[in-house]
Design a protein that fits this description.
The protein is α/β, with parallel strands linked by helices. The chain is 32% helix and 20% strand. The chain is built from 9 helices and 11 strands. Helix 1 crosses helix 2. The protein is globular and about 45 Å long.
């Protein structure tokens, strides 16, 4: 197994880091049966990839063996954004390559400089990845990570663009929906919740992202109970999650 170095990982503002830490703690209370967690949004540019990456890092840094799978096979920019590289200079063969080729799954994942954090980024975007995701090979990948990691975090494509998200959700133990404050409409979020329900993927919670408090700066807010109210209206949430404004 090769090691990928993540070179671009800037320090986060305290409020954002604390909010992510609380999110990590709440996930740990979900029970032993929740292992494969999908991080998804309704539309692009809501911050789901940022949440998936930082949540995976937080979990791994606490000694919980975790892996992040980049399943946004159409428009991933993970390797470029985070400056990922292999020390030997070899090419990164990521998710789409693993799904399209009969290579040993265990040898195709990557260690990182985070001791308990492994990763499978997507280095080759494809025009129509639906067949790769619907293939038995994708199920085998998730079965492998479920057996070898405490948590598998899956960065999924937005739900409103293609059916890929529903396919991924059908194989996960739950989903975290990232919503951009002031941008994503109530009806769009409700539709995303319905899509996840249709896929048989339990809603673990909703993260309200990029929300500015009354005094500016960063803040995080708790959503608990059966329903919660916000700028968008009421959405179902089975757990409590926290998130702060992205810088």
């Amino acid at each position: 197994m090769h090691t990928i170095t993540i070179q671009n990982n800037p320090d986060l503002p305290y409020a954002v880091e604390e909010a992510l830490n609380r999110l990590r703690i709440n996930i740990s209370f979900l029970g032993k049966d929740v292992r494969k967690i999908m991080v998804v949004s309704t539309t692009p540019n809501e911050g789901k990839s940022f949440v998936a990456m930082q949540l995976w890092m937080q979990m791994a840094k606490t000694g919980t063996k975790s892996i992040l799978i980049d399943a946004d096979l159409r428009k991933s920019i993970m390797t470029e954004k985070y400056g990922m590289s292999i020390e030997s200079g070899e090419r990164i063969n990521g998710t789409s390559y693993v799904l399209a080729n009969e290579v040993p799954i265990g040898e195709s994942l990557f260690h990182t400089q985070i001791k308990d954090g492994d990763i499978l980024p997507n280095s080759d975007n494809v025009i129509n990845p639906s067949m790769l995701l619907e293939n038995r090979r994708f199920e085998e990948l998730l079965e492998y990570t479920e057996s070898n990691y405490r948590y598998t975090f899956i960065d999924s494509p937005p739900l409103d663009l293609v059916s890929d998200g529903e396919r991924i959700g059908s194989l996960c133990d739950g989903a975290i929906l990232v919503v951009r404050g002031g941008v994503t409409s109530k009806s769009m979020v409700k539709h995303s919740v319905m899509q996840l329900e249709r896929a048989g993927c339990p809603m673990l919670g909703i993260i309200l992202n990029r929300v500015e408090g009354s005094k500016g700066g960063y803040y995080y807010k708790k959503y608990g109970g059966k329903y919660y109210g916000s700028h968008y209206g009421k959405y179902y949430s089975s757990e409590s999650y926290y998130y702060g404004k992205k810088k």
